[in-house]
């Protein structure tokens, strides 16, 4: 069988590896950190930095296709790898999603709605942007942010100086605060022949910038549900995308506003593991290996709950709870806010 190379050995890499294995593929994880969660389930693991050219070359030669669990892979590493095996999703999807400014500009050019935004390079550009966008607004680093890290809220112009200091000199973007009623996301897949399939949109609840729960079905009208799926397909087609893609949306009276896109399997798609014949991880493996896209129709109502921090104390109880599927990542709790696992509560009607 062929071998799938996965860059990044966290829980997403781990669950991709399991899905690959179930379809008869081998997997090879590339991860700089020691003892990665995916390391216990993959067939092969390379522990090396993204600057280690010989390790990258050996990895690239050992696999038939390369994919990834996170979007912040250094460009030089991708330049080297792309000559050794196809990379899916492709470079364009990575380029766009690595930088919030490029991403929001791309979405606007596609005719999709985003929060008002401005490029921030210094105090002068921030004060000019605040004149136009107003408060409340959010200053975010253009790159490397996740789980709400690298963000500072500006409730009034008085907060501007501190927010700028919080960016520590990194290029940033100011976003107007979107007055949304709730957040949803669409997990879509596109295959090399251009077929697109989308899972039912999920409704997401965040706290402190971290996803806590995803509920399906989401509170959406039939029209909003169609809009959500069509805009995800529009993004996937524009990028000539291959693989699974997550699109985060704000629901407002003025329609759906795109927050960000993730060129990978997505935390808000974990419900599919217990709600569909083919989950997002298998769908991704199918797309990047040229299998037909699978049946992602939802057959249950689900609440997916992330297990973070003290939530882990509930695992013995959750393990005894009917209709509760427990998924643990085998991680050590090295820092607060770390995602340790998730559960899917299955609602039977
Ligand atoms: P992720 O872990 O999803 O990649 P991230 O660090 O990239 O998170 P965002 O998705 O940009 O961060 O923001 C995290 C959350 O903060 C959003 O899901 C939303 O709840 C809130 N948020 C972000 N931007 C805005 C905005 N412009 N208006 C209102 N709320 C926002
Ligand atoms: Mg993000
Ligand atoms: Mg987000």
From TrEMBL:
In terms of Pfam families, this protein maps to: ATP-grasp, PurK_C, RS_preATP-grasp-like
Query: What is the enzyme's class at the highest EC level?
Result: ligase
Reactions performed catalytically:
5-amino-1-(5-phospho-beta-D-ribosyl)imidazole + hydrogencarbonate + ATP = 5-carboxyamino-1-(5-phospho-D-ribosyl)imidazole + ADP + phosphate + 2 H(+)
EC number(s) of the enzyme? 6.3.4.18
What does the entry list as the binding residues for ATP? 100, 140, 145-151, 175-178, 183, 206, 259-260
Question: Which pathway does the protein contribute to?
Answer: Purine metabolism; IMP biosynthesis via de novo pathway; 5-amino-1-(5-phospho-D-ribosyl)imidazole-4-carboxylate from 5-amino-1-(5-phospho-D-ribosyl)imidazole (N5-CAIR route): step 1/2
Q: What positions does the domain ATP-grasp occupy?
A: 104-289
Q: Name one GO cellular component term.
A: cytosol
Superkingdom classification of source: Bacteria
Check the record and name the InterPro entries matching this protein. ATP-grasp, ATP-grasp_carboxylate-amine, ATP_grasp_subdomain_1, PreATP-grasp_dom_sf, PurK, PurK_C, PurT/PurK_preATP-grasp, Rudment_hybrid_motif
Checking PROSITE patterns in the record gives:
ATP_GRASP
Keyword entries, A-Z: ATP-binding, Ligase, Lyase, Nucleotide-binding, Purine biosynthesis
MF terms from GO for this chain are: 5-(carboxyamino)imidazole ribonucleotide synthase activity; ATP binding; metal ion binding; phosphoribosylaminoimidazole carboxylase activity
According to its UniProt entry, one GO biological process term is: 'de novo' IMP biosynthetic process
Q: What does this protein do?
A: Catalyzes the ATP-dependent conversion of 5-aminoimidazole ribonucleotide (AIR) and HCO(3)(-) to N5-carboxyaminoimidazole ribonucleotide (N5-CAIR). Catalyzes the ATP-dependent conversion of 5-aminoimidazole ribonucleotide (AIR) and HCO(3)- to N5-carboxyaminoimidazole ribonucleotide (N5-CAIR).
Subunit arrangement?
Homodimer.
Please name the HAMAP family in this protein's record: PurK (MF_01928)
Q: Which family does it belong to?
A: Belongs to the PurK/PurT family.
- PANTHER family, per this entry? PHOSPHORIBOSYLAMINOIMIDAZOLE CARBOXYLASE, PURINE BIOSYNTHESIS PROTEIN 6/7, PUR6/7
Protein name according to UniProt? N5-carboxyaminoimidazole ribonucleotide synthase
Q: Which organism is it from?
A: Marivita geojedonensis
Q: What is the lineage of its organism?
A: Bacteria, Pseudomonadati, Pseudomonadota, Alphaproteobacteria, Rhodobacterales
Q: What is the name of the gene encoding this protein?
A: purK
């Amino acid at each position: 069988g062929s071998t799938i190379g996965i860059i990044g050995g966290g829980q997403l890499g781990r669950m991709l590896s399991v899905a690959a294995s179930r379809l008869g593929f081998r997997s090879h994880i590339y991860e700089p950190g020691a003892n990665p969660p995916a390391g216990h389930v993959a067939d092969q693991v390379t522990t090396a930095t993204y600057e280690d050219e010989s390790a990258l070359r050996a990895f690239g030669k050992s696999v038939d296709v390369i994919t990834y669990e996170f979007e912040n892979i250094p460009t030089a590493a991708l330049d080297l790898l792309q000559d050794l095996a196809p990379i899916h999703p492709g470079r364009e999807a990575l380029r766009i999603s690595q930088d919030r400014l490029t991403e929001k500009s791309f979405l606007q050019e596609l005719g999709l709605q985003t929060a008002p935004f401005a490029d921030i390079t210094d105090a002068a550009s921030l004060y000019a942007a605040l004149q136009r966008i107003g408060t409340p607004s959010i200053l975010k680093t253009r790159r490397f942010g996740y789980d709400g890290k690298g963000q500072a809220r500006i409730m009034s112009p008085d907060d501007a100086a501190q927010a700028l200091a919080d960016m520590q000199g990194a290029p940033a973007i100011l976003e107007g605060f979107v007055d949304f009623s709730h957040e949803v996301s669409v997990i879509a897949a596109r295959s090399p022949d251009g077929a697109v399939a989308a899972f039912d949109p999920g409704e997401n609840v965040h706290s402190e910038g971290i996803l806590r729960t995803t509920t399906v079905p989401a509170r959406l009208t039939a029209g909003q549900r169609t809009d959500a799926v069509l805009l995800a397909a529009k993004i996937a087609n524009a990028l000539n995308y291959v693989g699974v893609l997550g699109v985060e949306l704000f629901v407002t009276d003025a329609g759906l506003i795109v927050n960000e896109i993730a060129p990978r399997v997505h935390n808000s798609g974990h419900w599919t593991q217990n709600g569909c014949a083919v989950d997002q991880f298998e769908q991704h493996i199918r797309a990047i290996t040229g299998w037909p896209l699978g049946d992602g129709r939802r057959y249950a109502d689900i609440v997916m709950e992330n297990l973070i921090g003290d939530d882990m104390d509930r695992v013995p109880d959750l393990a005894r709870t009917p209709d509760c599927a427990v998924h643990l990542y085998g991680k050590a709790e090295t820092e607060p806010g770390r995602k340790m696992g998730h559960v899917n509560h299955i609602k039977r009607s």
